[in-house]
Amino acid sequence: MSTLQSLGSERPHRAEAVVDLAAIRHNVATLRARAENGAQLMTIVKADGYGHGMIPVARAAREAGADWIGAAVLEEALALRDAGDTGPIFCWLTTPGEPLEDAIAAGIDLSAAAPWEIDELVAGVTDRPARVHLKIDSGLSRGGAVPEEWPALIRAALRAQQAGRIEIKGIWSHLASSDEPKSPANEAQLATFTEAIEVAESFGVDAEFKHLANSGATLALPETHFNLVRPGVATYGLSPFGHALPSAELGLRPAMTLKARYAMVKRVPAGAGVSYGLTWTAPRPSTLGLIPLGYGDGLPRHASNGAPIQSGGERRTIVGRICMDQCVVNLEDDQAAAGDEVVLFGPGADGEPTVDDWADAAGTINYEIVTRLGSRIPRRYIDSGR
């Protein structure tokens, strides 16, 4: 998409996100092995591959055996086709009036959750019928037809299919609480989804694919797998369960390391206030390092006065408020200089902070930390497996 890419031959950047494609392939293979009863696997690459780079991630996923690629919005799905991906692609989030005809012509599977969406799909058909997955709202109360409106959606879809305008390829839904595998909401949604399949089949629907499982369910709820699973965040080596069940215990490898180089290092006296609002004051003479990254690059401002980094092999803490373009770290009495490398997060194998550590500091989830990283940070792709 729009994210800058580095091939490793340029001069050093002020910052970069290093993405290991071998880790992506490893995670896809691991998730594929967890799918029950030979279920196919759809790798979700929405939001520029959760900030990792949609096209490189999709290619690595295909290499590792991903049967499907999932993209939230049309521009993502079409960009995958433009990049040469010829395999099955599923796209599920559209609004009235979007150019569905382009996606239909490109053979992209689309979602429908209301009769008006069937009408829009029919209007977009030219040379080939639209491939459609009908969505039931099984309890998330987001997209999908509520059970009371499910029969009307089925009837509209069957009329369009009988007219040769669409093919009903799937029935699907999305879980609300798979990151809490023991939540009773999972059992309730599974029951609603199963009933929706039975209702559809009673009307004569013969959908090839039934899919409900996201990352958490792929890893912990095998009864939700049906014949297609859709892991997202786990593809990138991040646990949907956070610290409760870390990536390493799931056999996943975090793929991204965020690095920067100090723009300045200086000594300040005791009592010196740091950054906007002077919310942190040096308790004694201290060395401060200026990191040229801020909330304009995607660092969460809520992680001010607490986010960890690694500098010179030591864990240190960001102090003061994170600004738009920069933040400050307390190096205490460490020796450092402008241009030295600092690691904000990575897999954690060398003692560096992880994405989960940053999520804890910001009071959010690991999904948000990587996805919000902006286009000012170049992505550099490595392949530790080759």
From TrEMBL:
Pathway annotation from the record: Amino-acid biosynthesis; D-alanine biosynthesis; D-alanine from L-alanine: step 1/1
Cofactor(s) this protein cannot do without: pyridoxal 5'-phosphate
EC number of the protein: 5.1.1.1
Residues reported in the UniProt entry to bind substrate: 142, 324
Catalytic center residues: 46, 276
Domain Alanine racemase C-terminal: 255-382
Gene3D superfamilies named among the record's database cross-references: Alanine racemase, Lyase, Ornithine Decarboxylase, Chain A, domain 1
Location of N6-(pyridoxal phosphate)lysine modifications: 46
Record keywords: Isomerase, Pyridoxal phosphate
GO biological process: D-alanine biosynthetic process; peptidoglycan biosynthetic process
GO molecular function, one term: pyridoxal phosphate binding
Record field: catalytic activity: L-alanine = D-alanine
GO cellular component terms given for this protein: cytosol
Family, similarity comment: Belongs to the alanine racemase family.
Biological function: Catalyzes the interconversion of L-alanine and D-alanine. May also act on other amino acids.
Designated name of the protein: Alanine racemase
Organism: Kribbella antiqua
